[in-house]
Structure formats: C-alpha cells, structure tokens
Amino acid sequence: MTSPSRDINDLFDEIVLTEEKEARLGYEEGLKDGQEQGNEEGYKLGYAQGVSLGEELGKILGQVVAQQQLKHTDKVRRSLEQLRSLIEEFPRTNDPQADIIGAVQDIRSSHRRLRALLGSKKTPGAETPPETNSVDHKDYSF
Prior knowledge:
The chain is an all-alpha fold. Helices cover 70% and strands 0% of the residues. It is built from four helices and no strands. It has helices spanning 8-68, 74-88, 100-118, 130-133. 10% of the residues are buried. Mean pLDDT is 81; it is low at 121-135.
C-alpha cells in the first residue's frame, strides 16, 4: 500500500505552523520562568528591605519608650507621643494603598526633630545608636 502523496504547499504550511507553535510555546515557557525568577528576586529584595526598615523603626520605638519614662518638657513629651503614634500607625499589612515611603519619611523627620530637642540634654538613653543617628538612611523609594 502506498501512502497518498501530499501537496507540497501543505507540507510547507505544516512546517511554518509547527515552527510558530514551538516559538509560541517557548515564549510562554520563558515568560513563566522569568516571572517566577523575578517574583523570587523581588520577594528576597523586599524581605531584606523590610527587615532593615523594621529594625530601624524598632530601634526608634525603643528609644521613644525609654525617653517616655523620663521627665521632659511638654514640647518633648508631645514630640515623643507623636513619634510613637507614627510608628504604631505604620502599615503592617500588604496594603497597596498604604503610603509606606511617606510614613517612613514622616517618622524619620519626627525622629530628627526629637533628637534635636534632646540634643542639649545629657539624659540617659538620649543618645541614639550610630545606625539610626547617621544621615545615610536607605531610600526606600522607587
């Protein structure tokens, strides 16, 4: 039994369609792999930055709580309360509407003002660790 002869145009169409199909499948597979790798890298970067920011805010909150145990002027007490409020209100969930960068900037500004107010006093605990006292804060903006 002989196989029926196929039209040469059908063979060329099949070759072209197979090539297109393989290219599409390769593209889709590469896109999926790229997204997975990008998500993993993004997660690792976000996690590391989050940990660093959490450490910074935790140190500032610890300083605030310690200072609140001491006697201060009304102005310093209000500044301590405001800074503590800013930290306690800092977003702790993955809310896309949250202005994390703005919140960090507000906390840092309030912390700098508080340090300036406490700068003339030599009370225990008024000094800040070098990590939070330096001007080289990481920029968490994009």
